[in-house]
Amino acid sequence: MSKKILSIDVGIKNLAYCILEKKDDKFNICNWDIVNILDEKLENQPKCQNILKNKICSKIASYSLNTEPLVYYCDKKTCEKNINQKYPKCKSKKLKKITSKNTSILELGSILLRKLDKKKEVLLDVDEVVIENQPVLKNPTMKSIQIILYTYFIEHGYNIDGRIKNIVLFSARNKLKLYDGPKVECQKKNDYDKRKFLSVEYTKYYIKDDLKNNNFFLKHKKKDDLADSFIQGYYYLFKDK
Questions:
Q1: Using the 8-state DSSP alphabet, how is residue 159 labeled?
Q2: pTM of the full predicted structure?
Q3: Domain holding 211: CATH number?
Q4: In terms of domains, do 82 and 110 share one?
Q5: d(Cα 45, Cα 74) in Å, to the nearest integer?
Q6: DSSP 46-84
Q7: Would 228 disulfide with which of 4, 9, 55, 173, CB 3.0-4.6 Å?
Q8: In Å, how far from its chain's centre is CA 42?
Q9: Given this model, what pLDDT does residue 241 score?
């Protein structure tokens, strides 16, 4: 008998998910990715207009000049110098940087729901959903994202006689406990950093024979978040074996 789950490591710029299917004592990674809730807003921000090596810089702008129309440039020293030399009499204004802290829960939630809907054929085709539980007081925004995720899967997968039969809020403290591979030396001092480091190393061990997903994982910039979503799902599937 097989079981297919969606494991979610809650985040805003790096919301990681991993869909795993277990058959007997073996598992398969069906889908693995990261969602950036802020990327739509960042994409719509003004871009640097300075020309570097015959190409427009296009990095997200940090400043604007009071020209008509406005001229934008980033915080690179070269770009700042070139733009100010070109417009020596114009005043610059620092642009407000888009972050999760200055983006409302309403907007974050609206963007997240749209992104989930775009992936719903994949995300809803599972038996259970496992969502990393967030502390209430430490980061209220992350807790809100968790609740939005939980509600989405109730509404779209559980309440409509869909495939989803269970939605679990999972404690992050447990996910490293099943590791049965070679000992991993860790020099990290902070508990959080230790967990992140070990999560990546344990994931490398578990997927070493999966060429496709191993290559994807090793080349990814956010291995720690991908690893957290995988290890959480792996623990949930095999904790009762």
A1: T
A2: 0.86
A3: 3.30.420.10
A4: no
A5: 11
A6: -B---EETTEE--PBPSEEES-SS-EEE-S-HHHHHHHH
A7: 9
A8: 15
A9: 67
